[in-house]
Specification:
By secondary structure, the protein is α/β, with parallel strands linked by helices. 37% of the residues lie in helices and 21% in strands. It is built from eight helices and twelve strands.
Length: 239
């Protein structure tokens, strides 16, 4: 069966062009014009992935994202935004989005990001199973480095005794860094492993996610764990 996309875009021309392009690419598309319709459709027939415009009248894309995440919906979400400031992109990640594309965009980039998000979705609905609140006992499914502990199967992570609230992308990025602690990973390697696609030297996507992950990891009085190696990439280590 074709994978399903719920597209919410208030600009009629962009909505129709994307709907046609996605359909020709083999997706089954439901296109709506605002956030209210997007939420109603998501509740009625959950899609495999959502493509949400940020700026929509009434309920915007960020609000749609927040509502679905608050309900426990972990369907991958790709945001379409004309906002290019880092703070705006962080707002989208904070709302629960998995990735974003800045307008004007190349439709091939949209396709690439959708494919990457769908590859990372589990064979089921992508929902995270309920798990006990206390940290599980150490086992082979756990990995540790630099004071971090991750339960890969349960998709939970801790720094010391503090549990981290991570999005899907943040968890996968942190897991990659923990598994390669002390090794400098270049930008291309990280893009390929996390997104399945290298967005090129001009992309700020990785820098935004690393910055947001740092905000969740670091606290006053604790050493930084993710270090930038200028011109190369990033490394996880505890100095």
């Amino acid at each position: 069966m074709p994978q399903t996309v719920l597209l919410a875009e208030d600009d009629r021309a962009i909505r129709h062009a994307l709907e046609r392009a996605l359909s020709l690419e083999g997706y089954q598309v439901t296109a709506v014009a605002d956030g209210v319709e997007a939420l109603a459709q998501a509740h009625k027939t959950p899609p495999d992935v959502l493509l949400l415009d940020v700026m929509m009248p009434g309920i915007d894309g960020l609000q749609v994202c927040r509502v679905l995440r608050a309900e426990g919906d972990r369907t991958p979400i790709l945001m379409l935004t004309a906002l290019v400031e880092t703070a705006d992109r962080i707002a989208g990640l904070d709302a629960g989005a998995d990735d974003y594309v800045v307008k004007p965009f190349d439709v091939e980039e949209v396709f690439a990001r959708l494919r990457a998000l769908l590859r990372r979705t589990s064979p089921d609905t992508g929902a995270v199973a309920d798990v006990p609140k206390e940290p599980p006992p150490a086992s082979d499914r756990q990995i540790e480095a630099a004071g971090l502990r991750m339960d890969v199967q349960a998709r939970r992570a801790w720094r010391g005794d503090r549990e981290l609230e991570l999005t899907r992308t943040e968890f996968e990025l942190l897991e990659l860094l923990v598994r390669n602690a002390g090794i400098v990973l270049d930008h291309s390697t990280i893009y390929d492993r996390i997104w399945g696609y290298d967005f090129g030297p001009g992309s700020k996507n990785l820098a935004v996610y690393v910055g947001y992950l740092r905000r969740k990891l670091d606290e006053p009085g604790t050493p930084a764990l993710i270090h930038t190696v200028r011109g190369v990439g990033y490394v996880l280590r505890e100095d």
